[in-house]
Amino acid sequence: MLRRNCLLLFLCFLFEQSSCAPFQSRPGQEWPHSQTGPLAAGRNGGSRGFQRVKRGWVWNQFFVLEEYMGSDPQYVGKLHTDLDKGDSAVKYTLSGDGAGTIFTIDQITGDIHALRSLDREVKPYYTLRAQAVDIETNRPLEPESEFVIKVQDINDNEPKFLEGPYTASVPEMSPVGTYVMKVTATDADDPTYGNSARVVYSILHGQPYFSVDPKTGVIRTALPNMDREMKELYQVLIQAKDMGGQLGGLAGTTTINITLSDVNDNPPRFSKSIFHLRVPESSAVGSAVGRIKAHDLDIGKNAEVEYNIVPGDGGAMFDITTNEHNQEGIIMLKKPLDYETKKAYTFKVEASNAHLDPRFHNFGPFKDTATVKINVLDVDEPPVFSKPSYAMDVYEDTPQGTIIGAVTAQDLDAGNSPVRYSIDWKSDLDSFFDIDPVRGTISTNELLDRESIAQHNISVVATKVNNPVLTSKVAVTVHVLDINEFPPELAMPYETYVCESAKVGQVIQVISARDQDLPQAGQKFSFKYPQEGVKTKNFTIRDFGNNTAGVMTLRVGFKRRSQEIYHLPVVIEDGGLQTLSSTGTLTIRVCGCDTDGSLLTCSAEAIFLPVGLSTGALIAILVCIVILLVIVVLYVGVRRQKKKETLMTSKEDIRDNVIHYDDEGGGEEDTHAFDMGTLRNPKVIKENMFRRDVKPELGLCPRRPVASQNSADISNFISLRLQEHEGDTSAPPYDSLATYAYEGEGSVAESLSSIESVKGETEEDYDYLNEWGPRFKTLAGIFGERSEMPQWSWFVILVFMV
């Protein structure tokens, strides 16, 4: 009793420190269904709110069994306070998770019941709040307190493998206990309560090859030397059982597919000890002769095979490589075959693994050997030349028919057929050579010229007599050797000059020579003056001995005013067996030079130029003069263009004119049939003007203009003029101009004629014509154009004159 009172005092102290906060326990801590204490609270009817009182009842955690299957609600626990005297004055209320739906409370007694079955795996606990209130006033007697109802677990869930089925791999030939993989089963039951979630693993199917650790679920090999070539795939069934594997526990299973991975534990083996192959002797080098294969029971890189030819008889003629796709050995021809030389070859081939595993060296050598026999098949072959190519030399201008060499070909087959020779016409289009078809001797057919063609490349064809289809071809190179037939000459036309300030013995030019011949010993030239005993007073030739020579001065004081050009002959000899020579002439000009010998000018006229003007200044002056002449010509052309008079601008033709175009004749450009001057000036009409395109009629008198200027009636005037033109049989059929020299009277616009205009060169402003309307715009443009002055030309001329 003393212990209980002390515990209650300690709890009251904790409540005071937490300001009446409800007491909560750690999850998992078990408490009795209810705890009651001595009365520590009472009513205070005169107070409007609550007073701070000590709680006389405490509860923290209740338990309810999951999956309850009873017909009555499951009893959970009881709430009670010391203020409850059993007189039904206290009412208990419940709120929080599932209050009223899952859990219910008797308001008078405080008994809590669960209305339905609960599942811990869905919700493991429920948090609720309880309070004691006055049944009459509903005023809280104590602060609200929080408690937890925990769902107590039962074993209603079996272990499950969430990631199954599983796949694993382990190398073959592994020792016992080799780790394969680890499986884990999950149990949804509460692992902190009982053995419902304690899982034990066991193997149901897959023994005796594999084992499983009952606690950890680690799977290991149980048999040594499991061979993949015997069995590659194993299916293992693993069981996980809760309740520690005891009877009544729930169990779950999963399947594990375990594959034995390959290791190199098998050597390659040939299917037979001897392989027979055949190959034609005409097979090309590098071609495949045949295939052999060594089988390896392993897979992947462990089955890769390397083939090698064992050194010995016949192995040097062939080579062998490995096909990466099917691991076959491909025998390749390394050298040309000849049936007549050797008809069969025998050698050994060794097959071995490329990747060895040192763990299995004790199994024996990982290689195998087989014998390969290759028979060479005879093939009818073309003739074979004794050399792969031929080279021959011949001097140019050699007489026709001269033999310059021979080629030889032979039939190596057993029949030994005769061979015939010919020259491929495509290689000798000009037929410079000929060949004996039986002996194969090559002779000249034309005179050869080294300077035209120094080397001839021809092809000789050899054909078997008994099988003309089989031919072979060889290249023949004919070098045309040179003979000394061309004299040497100067290498180029030299432009030699000597300075007026040249010194005695100064080399003013280095010369060389060239020769169209090409002697075998190389070209050798010598230079000399034509007359070797005669001394020249101006220049001499000095041979340097290296196919070059120098022109040297023999005096000083060369002057352009006295002599501008000197000619120096040079004799050039070659070094051939028959020495040839020629004489060349050097033209030497006297020039002015700087103090360092640099050329200034070689023109004699340059001496008389003014000292103050340079060549550049003279060129600039000439360019300016040319530009001024061009401008003057342009100005004169513009002036003449402005002075051209048209029909409407002529002072004599400005009148009322009627132009008839009643006939489609030769056009205005036809000036032979009609005088175009009549159209331009009606007054200039000669008395005897007849048509030039027809024969004039006899007795035809020249037409006289009718003076009708004083006629009062313009209608009569026009009628007279029309009758005159209609009756004129000599009138031209082309475009003609009929003049009516009569002006009307009383025009509002006044007269437009220029008859009464003031004569003279004074300029008149015709801008007022623009104000008369669009009909006079063309006339205003014609007269306005005459008054324009080309002021820009005056400006340009003035600028250049300055």
Automatic annotation (TrEMBL):
It is found in: Cell junction, Adherens junction; Cell membrane. One of its GO terms (cellular component) is adherens junction. Keywords: Calcium, Cell adhesion, Cell junction, Cell membrane, Glycoprotein, Membrane, Metal-binding, Repeat, Signal, Transmembrane, Transmembrane helix. GO terms for molecular function: beta-catenin binding; cadherin binding; calcium ion binding. Pfam families: CADH_Y-type_LIR, Cadherin. The chain crosses the membrane at residues 607-638. Residues 1-20 form the signal peptide. One of its GO terms (biological process) is adherens junction organization. This is Cadherin-12. It comes from Cyprinus carpio carpio.
